[in-house]
UniProtKB/TrEMBL annotation:
InterPro entries: ATP_grasp_subdomain_1, PEP-util_enz_mobile_dom, PEP_util_AS, PEP_util_C, Phosphohistidine_dom_sf, PPDK_AMP/ATP-bd, Pyruvate_phosphate_dikinase, Pyrv/PenolPyrv_kinase-like_dom. The lineage of its organism: Bacteria, Bacillati, Actinomycetota, Actinomycetes, Kitasatosporales. This is Pyruvate, phosphate dikinase. Its EC number is 2.7.9.1. It catalyses: pyruvate + phosphate + ATP = phosphoenolpyruvate + AMP + diphosphate + H(+).
Length: 900
């Protein structure tokens, strides 16, 4: 019979797929001998069965009952007994951390009788009724579906009636009244009473946690973090321990290093006389964890010892939740902590220095997206006179945006193209859509371990928490700070590194890491580089030492080529020649298109030739000694002509006014009309254009060949390659190759310089991928154009569909991430593998790369490494990301952990 429930003593950290991250780590801490409240875990497999069938799997109730009975025997008390009852917490625990996205229910087992037993002594009365209040509120909203705002409003009304500042000031009588109000609310809203049977409470709580896996906020978070939808969540059932028993009790969250900067030390938050949910919810401002040393020295010392043990055991930054109950320390959770980009690089370097991990493992602890965040700009000024609010620097970076006060408004404005800053007293999981939409998050409550801080760090969003100087007025949609009233829509600048907010838009400057790459990736000899730059330099060197993939750049100008080289590019994988035909050269292209006969067309091409040669010369100079792959003209020719409607309107207006028509405009309209295509991206473009427009290929090849000669005469080492786009059939490539070879031979003969340029093709159509073995016989190299390959494989146009239905497709799980963002491994990826295998079988020395947008996407880089490509090519600014990920891909392939 399938086992659906495991005691903490039966698991370990290697069982995260079955027990979820939280359950596996609770079992690991128990195995290490740390003080973990006893409990057991219901597996993710049970959850998946429930989600698929709507029913708990056979035997689950019995297995839970058996483990509960063992728990009761060990505790010496039963769930629901009147005198000092056993109480339980029921918490979610997915394979990958999803902070606050699923449900938790505390104090399971309390009812109208057992609350009296829990409150049997006067000093425990308030605690007992506060615990009952929490259960009814959590159970009512999470399990029974009552809108949580009704409970919050009722609670706020009692506090307002007595002019109380927070929940801790409510006395026992207040709490008894609130419990009755909450139970009445449940009866009114659901038609049923709050259940008094503890067994029913437990059963329904477990199923509610299962159900929360498919809740809106959980699905949104998984989509944002690229977590698969089919994993399910485990459920952890654990003996309650109480941090709300008085001044000698409390709860907190600790990090073994600063998750914002990576600095070693004591970091975290502590809240005396509080449960753990109060800490992460941000409803009361915490004190720094260091203050625990004065409040409870013995517990603080034990906690520090456990923190050191856990970090050494996990060999990484650990995020730890704990509760102190009447001076006894309990460890409630540990996990590898989320961290900022800067902290990721810092911690990896530190752990390598301390000998906890190897240099290669350090590379596996960082990722390309974290590197990209370090390359973001920062504010140009730190003038403190401009500051209107200060808070906790919870997630670093610089962001400017218009203030909004709720998630819906953030989403609405962001969808309209406006940058926004979400301002809340504290965020809840329901604010996730607004946090995704916002550039930054600002809260008046909470600390580095609040919901806002943890989620923002995980998403790379700027965040300032606990800005106590601001008063958030959501009713009137404004906040006040430093004597200034800030209404919704006002632009503010949020500095997540310093924890400050400034009015208006503060200028941005490049980051130190960006400057490092702009200066060629070399540390200054005087040792003045800041620590984040040194950490990046160290791990980039490691990535370059182990990676097998070359990294090239997509660049069309000498300036872009030079920047790409400074950023570490090993050549140009895509030089688009169509960009050279725009601007003041457009009339020459028009002349070529409108030419009457060979003589006029040849004259137009002759005028374009020296301009193209000049462009190619500059790019070959910038990339001297490195390969430069030049793609022949790709888009339809009508893209170089004026808009058809605009021309027709201009001519019609002139006719209506009696103004003689411009003959050139009439000729252009006739040409545009003649060349009009219903679907031009599947029409006359690419290799097809070269085969039907005489002289076009010859002009481009001659310009490139003559540029090679110019660079050779200048003592350079030009390495030009010619790439033919949109090839469907080997015959197309054969015909173009004949013309290329003829022109190269002519230039060689005319100049006395042997000009040899490898000729290859883009694989960007399914037919090309499926006939790659034949095409390889005519090609020196392949380069996958994954943008067009994705469009033609899926059968949709990127420009049309992303706004039209991608959001719905992501919501419905048709694909987990846009196939234009990360390579579609099952479809497009399979075509890539087929083309690589068949191409290399026909031509073992075939060079293969990719030049689509996927070349700079971290997940796609790992796929291309596994598929056996020689290089990836991406925009210059993504070159460092691709280099880093290429190194991590090599480690992953060799069995070294490359998880970020």
């Amino acid at each position: 019979m399938t086992t659906y429930v495991y005691d903490f003593s039966e698991g370990g950290r290697d069982m995260a797929g079955l027990l979820g991250g939280k359950g596996a780590n609770l079992a690991e801490m128990a195995r290490m001998g740390l003080p973990v409240p006893p409990g057991f875990t219901v597996t993710t497999e049970a959850c998946r069965i429930f989600l698929a069938t709507g029913q708990a799997p056979d035997g689950l109730d019995r297995q839970i009952s058996e483990h509960l009975a063992a728990l009761e025997r060990a505790a010496g008390k039963r769930l629901g007994q009147v005198d000092d009852p056993l109480l339980l917490s029921v918490r979610s625990g997915a394979r990958f951390s999803m902070p606050g996205m699923m449900e938790t229910i505390l104090d399971i087992g309390l009812n109208d009788l057992s609350v009296l037993g829990l409150a049997k002594t006067p000093e425990r009365e308030r605690f007992a009724w506060d615990s009952y209040r929490r259960l009814v509120q959590m159970f009512g909203s999470t399990v029974m579906g009552v809108d949580g705002s009704h409970f919050e409003a009722a609670l706020a009304a009692v506090k307002q009636q007595h002019s109380l500042g927070d929940d801790t000031q409510l006395d026992t009588c207040d709490l008894i009244r609130i419990v009755e109000t909450f139970k009445d609310l449940i009866q009114e809203r659901t038609g049923e009473e709050f259940p008094q049977d503890p067994a029913e409470q437990l059963r329904r709580a477990v199923l509610a946690v299962f159900t929360s896996w498919n809740g809106e906020r959980a699905r949104l978070y998984r989509r944002r973090e690229h977590i698969p939808d089919d994993l399910g969540t485990a459920v952890n059932i654990q003996t309650m321990v109480f941090g709300n028993l008085g001044a000698d009790s409390g709860s907190g969250v600790a990090f073994t290093r600063d998750p914002a900067t990576g600095r070693p030390g004591v970091y975290g938050d502590y809240l005396p006389n509080a449960q753990g949910e109060d800490v992460v919810a941000g409803i009361r401002n915490t004190v720094p964890l260091q203050d625990l040393a004065g409040l409870d020295p013995a517990s603080f010392a034990r906690l520090r010892g456990y923190m050191d043990r856990l970090e050494a055991h996990y060999r990484d930054l650990c995020d730890i939740e704990f509760t102190i109950e009447r001076g006894t320390l309990w460890m409630l959770q540990t996990r590898v902590g989320k961290r900022t980009a800067q902290a990721a690089f810092a911690i990896a370097s530190q752990l390598a220095d301390e000998g906890l991990i190897s240099e290669r493992e350090a590379l596996g602890r960082v990722g390309g997206e974290a590197l990209a965040r370090l390359m973001f700009p920062r504010f140009a000024t730190t003038d403190s006179s401009e500051v209107i609010a200060r808070g906790v620097p919870a997630s670093p970076g610089a962001a400017v945006g218009a203030v909004v006060f709720d998630s819906a408004e953030a989403v609405r404005r962001a969808a309209a193209g406006e940058k926004v800053v979400l301002v809340r007293q504290e965020t809840t999981p329901d604010d996730l859509p607004g946090m995704v939409a916002a550039q930054a998050v600002l809260t008046s409550r909470g600390g580095k371990t609040s919901h806002a801080a943890v989620v923002a760090r995980g998403m790379g969003k700027v965040c300032v928490c606990g800005a106590e100087g601001i008063v958030v007025d959501t009713r009137h949609r404004r906040f006040s700070a430093g004597g200034v009233t800030v209404p919704e829509g006002t632009v503010v600048s949020v500095d997540g590194s310093e924890g400050v907010v400034r009015l208006g838009s503060v200028p941005l400057v490049d980051s130190d890491v960006m400057r490092y790459f702009e200066e060629g990736g070399v540390l200054p000899a005087d040792g003045t580089a800041r620590q984040p730059v040194r950490d990046v330099h160290r791990l980039m060197r490691q990535a370059d030492a182990v990676r097998g993939l070359e990294v090239r750049a997509n660049a069309d100008t000498p300036e872009d080529a030079a920047r790409a080289r400074r950023f570490g590019a090993q050549g140009i994988g895509l030089c688009r020649t169509e960009h050279m035909f725009l601007g003041d050269r457009r009339p020459l292209v028009e002349a070529m298109i409108l030419a009457h006969g060979d003589t006029e067309r040849e004259a137009a091409l002759a005028a374009l030739l020296p301009l193209q040669r000049q462009d190619f010369t500059g790019i070959l100079e910038a990339m001297d000694g490195l390969p430069v792959t030049v793609r022949l003209l790709d888009p339809p020719l009508h893209e170089f002509l004026p808009d058809r409607t605009e021309l027709a309107v201009r001519l019609a207006r002139g006719e209506a006014l009696g103004t003689p028509a411009d003959p050139h405009d009439s000729e252009l309209l006739a040409a545009v009309t003649r060349m009009h295509e219903e679907n031009p991206m599947l029409g006359l473009r690419g290799v097809r254009l070269g085969l039907v427009v005489p002289g076009l290929v010859a002009m481009q090849v001659r310009a490139l060949a003559e540029a090679v000669v110019v660079r050779r005469h200048a003592g350079g080492d030009p390495r030009a390659e010619i790439m033919v786009p949109l090839v469907d059939a080997v015959e197309e490539l054969h015909l173009v190759r004949e013309e290329v070879d003829r022109v190269l031979a002519e230039v060689s003969l005319e100049t006395g310089v042997d000009v040899t340029c490898p000729v290859g093709t883009m694989i960007e159509l399914p037919r090309a991928a499926l006939t790659a073995g034949r095409i390889a016989k005519e090609a020196a190299f392949f380069s996958f154009g994954t943008n067009d390959l994705t469009q033609t494989t899926w059968g949709f146009s990127r420009d049309d569909v992303e706004a039209a239905f991608f959001s719905a497709y992501l919501d419905k799980g048709v694909f987990p991430v846009s196939p234009f963002e990360t390579i579609d491994r099952e479809g497009v990826g399979r075509l890539v593998r087929i083309a690589v295998e068949e191409g290399r079988a026909a031509r073992p020395d075939l060079k293969i790369g990719v030049c689509g947008e996927h070349g700079g996407d971290p997940a796609s880089v790992h796929f291309f490494h596994g598929a056996g490509l020689d290089y990836v090519s991406c925009s210059p600014f993504r070159v460092p990301v691709a280099r880093l990920e290429a190194g991590r891909a090599a480690l992953e392939a060799n069995g070294t952990d490359a998880s970020a």
